Every structure is written in structure tokens, then in C-alpha cells.
Amino acid sequence: MSSYIIHGGSPIQGTVTPSGNKNAAMPMAEACLLTDEPITLHNMPQIGDMEAVFELLTGLGVDVQRAGNSITLCAANLRSTEPNPKLFAQIRGSLTLMGPLLARHGHFAVPATKTGGDDIGRRRIDTHLHIFNKLGVEMVDKGRFEMRANGRLQGTDILLDEASVTATENGVMAASLAQGTTILRNAASEPHVQDLCNLLVRMGCPIDGIGSNTLIIHGQERLTGAEYTVGPDFMEIGSYIGLGAITAGELRINGIIPEHLRMMEIVFADRLGVRMETVKTAESATGWSLVIADEQELRIRTDFGGAIPRIDDQPWPAFPPDLMSIALVTATQAKGTVLIHEKMYDGRLYFVDKLVAMGAQIILCDPHRAVVVGPSRLVGHPITSPDIRAGMALILAALAAQGKTTIGNIQQIDRGYEAIDTKLRALGAKIERED
Considering the entire predicted model, what is its pTM? Predict the structure, then answer.
């Protein structure tokens, strides 16, 4: 099992560019199944989860050609609608194979119903099945998890019982080849959903309401090839905000999209006191950079009347659940008390015992709530990464701590962050990988 050996306390300074958004890249790669023409995607993250997606697609018969961070995929000669069950169970992104396979080929089957991804609590798939059923898909074998379409899918008006990102992505891709118009209400609207929708528009499927919670998909008989650049990973950007806040040195993050960071500004800047500034720059691919100031005086801003404030997660455009771990670690270095309320997953906060072992003052109230009292002096300690986001949060804690920290099970971190140790070393971090 690989580990990171980190010696904390060094200034983190310089310029870093985030990789492409992995949560956009996975369904966008799988959208190649909707056409027999090539799809070329740029700014693709080179991470473990993407490797699993490419292996799944190759197993189905998709031709995958790579050129650095650009990928060309062609599903002209698909030979199967049954993905590798072992790979399917490894990553959450495998779920979005269902929509395009059912839309174009009318069939999907896998002898495993365990959904992949991080072990952060129950992650239901009922919303996916509800959408497929409304479009004309039947579950023909629950034991084998096999679904078939009764002819061409039929567009309809669907209300999602939760604003699920992957269910919305499955619904949009399935509806793109359905007959007629499909309306998805209470749809997810995260930047990665927007990227997927914009790709489908380039492939020839008109979609109204992109960026809102009501998507209107005008189904087409066939879709064409397209070329698209994946947007920056705003989760990685949020991680760098936390990193710059709790370590010495000025950190500049190139290639941001300011609209994606509005709630991060409220949480990190307004509630935790992080000094940061959005600036225009010609050096950035997007024309924008975010600068995290060198000297920070982190202070938790109380609510009106001096009440203890709360940081919680909600569907977009509220604060994203994948950054709750980062916000929690940042709070350990801020003066004051804050309640961290993780509403969406009942296992994400269990990693706080590792921070407590490093010296953090945290009370875990229940699976969804933790009280953080700061600032705490963190010290190095042997720990293990339980999932992608908690693993990155532990790296932040280790870089802010005094002494040596060993983080095990870093394959989890590799699934979501491209060459993170290389990027951090370039910023002055003392971090080494031990295989």
C-alpha cells in the first residue's frame, strides 16, 4: 500500500493550475456511447477514476486514443452493453453508462448492483430507475440488474425526487436520443452537469435551461461527433483555497471560473476569514486567477447576536458536499467555534478522529454534525485516507502540522487528484510518495 510522507510547516507559495473536473470528465467520456462518430475531449484529468472509465469503455468496444490530456473516443463498433462488473463496482461514475447504453442500444446489464465510489454513506440509485421507467425502460431481471427499452425511448415530463447529479446526467443522456421532448424538473445544476449538457448541444441535441434546475431536452434521432474542453475542477480549487489559508506563503490559482466560486467565497472568506482575491490575468486559460494571501488571520464570524455559526452542504449552487472535509480542516486553524453539518452523506465525517489524533479540537456529535473549536496546534501522526476528499483534507492538515505525518491508502486520493504530490512539491511542500 502506497503512502505519503509529509513534513509540515513549510511555506506553500507559487502558482498552481487545477486539472479538469473529474465529475464532468467521466460522464462526458461515456457520452461517446450516444454516437458512432468520434468525440474529442481536452483537459481530461489523468487520475485513477478516469483510467477505470476508459477501461470500462474499452471493454464495451469503444476505441480510445490518447494524446496527453486530450482523448478521442469512438463507439462505432460497440460489441457489448454489459460492462465489466468488477470495474463497474469500483467507481460511482460507472452509473452514467446506463443512460447512453439504454438510449442508443436499448439494453444494459451488469451482474452487480453495488455502486462504486467513496464509502461515505448510502448512495441510492432509485432516482435513476425512476427516470428510466418514465422514459420507457423496464427492469427485466433485478437479480442480474438488467434493463431493456421498449423500442425507442419516449420523451416525457419527469420530476426527480432528489437533485441527484448522476441521475440528472443519466436522464439528460437518455433523453438526448428519445422521441420528443423531455423535461427534467428538480434537476442537478452543478458545473459538471452544465459541461455535459453543453457537450450534448455540440453533438446536436438542443437543451434549454442549462445551469437551472429545469432542463428541457429535445431528443434527436442521432447525434454527431464533437470536440469540447472540460472545465476546471472547482473541488480541486476549493482544496487549494484551504491549503493556502492554513499554510504560510501566497498561493495563486490559475484557470478559475469566478461564477463557480461564489459559495466558496461565502464559506471560506466570510465565515472563516480567509483573505482571497479574484484577479484578471492573461496567464490563465480562463482569464481569471484566485490569490490566497500570505498572512492570514483566520477568524470564524459568528451569526447575528453572537450565535455559533454553521457550515452545511446543499445541492448547487450551495456549498458542495465534497468540500466539507476541506472546510472542516480550515476551521481547525481559525479562531472561534463552528458547527459543521454534513447533510448529504452519513459517513463523510468519520475521518475527524484522525484530525483529533493530530491535535484538533473536534466534537463529533453524530454522523452528520461536528463542532470545531480553533485554532488548534496540529502535530504529525500516522493516519490513513478513507476516501478522496478526506484524503486531500488530511494532506492539508499534514502540511499545516509540525513534524512528520504518514498518510496510508493514498490510492483513494489518486482517484480524484492528478499528480497532487508533484503539484505540491512545486509549491514548496515537503511531500514524498513511498510505494
Answer: 0.93
